[in-house]
Amino acid sequence: MKYVVYDFLQVAGGAERVTLALARALPGFEVVVARVSPAAGPLLFGFGAGVRSLGGARSRRLGGVLEAIACFVGRAGFLAHAETVIYSGFYAPLAVHRQQAGRRIYYCHTPPRFAFELQSFYRARYPWFLRPLFDVFTAWLRVRYVRAVQAMDMVLANSDNVRRRLEVCCGVQAQVLHPPVDVARFGWLADEGYFLSTARLEPLKRVEVLVQAFLQMPHQRLVVCSGGAELATLVALAVGAPNIQFVGWTSDAELADWVGRARATLYVPVDEDFGMSPVESMAAGKPVIGVAEGGLLETVLDGQTGVLLSPALGVQAVCAAVESMTAERARAMRAACEARAQVFRSEVFEARIRALVK
Question: Of all residues in the chain, what percent carry a pLDDT higher than 90?
Answer without folding.
Answer: 80
